[in-house]
């Protein structure tokens, strides 16, 4: 049951290079991308027939139905062949014939650019600034990640037809972009960060996928912020198992069983981060990773170096003055200098102009309450530590009403309940 | 098969029997409630009757068209008196009786003191596509 003739992970890792080979042969990006997707789906379908390496069926089936090559011995060659044929089939219109014959003549492709550069170009194209974030995410997962439309749709809880439309519209949007046009690493990082931060469900582990894609990007470009994002992901991913209780409820950082943190992932994250920081080109992701590393470095919550964490938040504020960073900084200040200092930092945040810099398209504020979802939660925590349990309980209940997801809401409701039951007993 | 929407309300529904607000429960009671809801959904998935469920934020607003070239008019957050939906579950069942039975089970989710909430749920049948045989 476990033996597959083709390894899905391997196939997916080959997607960018197969796609760029087709583009170099003269296929336009949109058609090439469709053809590679068809080839992937074909490969997965054949694999799904349950052939094992010992049986005589599987490989032959693939060869017969899709044309030459051995998908097990030479999966890349097989994918290129199948995808290219799919591309030619799709272009079989009379008007396209002449062009197609010319294209066939060009096989094998002249390859001025290296595979590494091509992969990087693919990242740039899929995260092109003309794309909306959700389109860029979908296109990246399909064209760079090699996921099928169905897998992406499941991961984001939308119908497959909706996701298919989103992807084809995205491809139309970038159809005029030259494949070799220089891109902006920052837009790629934002897309990968979104994939990491907002993966929901389905068969595909989007968190792991985001790490894989960022790792692959780090192999194609030497950039401290790419390294910073990879380190950030590894350091957060390391805590994943400890972050939820068996019943699915959230376990806050301070209460996590640190023995369940993935030490190998932490070590790798720290090493990547240190190398990046040594380059002395600090950026947002490196600073965030530094904060995550300081948490990861503390054997117990009491041993957390909060003073240094506050310093990193100050750096982060210099790089990106967002209300979210100020809010998180207030928590750190509360730990470093006591809850009163934290509350003072929170009060300073109230006075700071939020206006256009406040994030997200969430529901508006209700009268007199703070517009940031987690503001009440932070205030509740600091008031509890300051000993004002009644106020803290009230704020936790308010925070629960504003929580952006169910797990947080349940957690905050439990915090309110914990204080309320303690006060009445 | 018939699809039904089960609606849960933050406010606007008749008062439940066990009406204590959630932040007055113990943390263990909250956990038991969450577990019950998860188990309920999992059971319906196993019987092939589950379609979808979503929780909705506590806040929202009214929006309406305000004429050509003008931005939409918004009104909100909702007034305190507004009937406010908390979330929904869509089920696909064989009969109206089965839908009522399941809504009853969902309403029995434990609340304060570990006792069922007896919460009022709104059960609404979907309008269907036209049938092939019409006479």
UniProtKB/TrEMBL annotation, chain B:
Family named by the database record: Belongs to the YciI family.
Source species, domain of life: Bacteria
Record-annotated YCII-related domain positions: 17-107
Protein name, UniProt field: YCII-related domain-containing protein
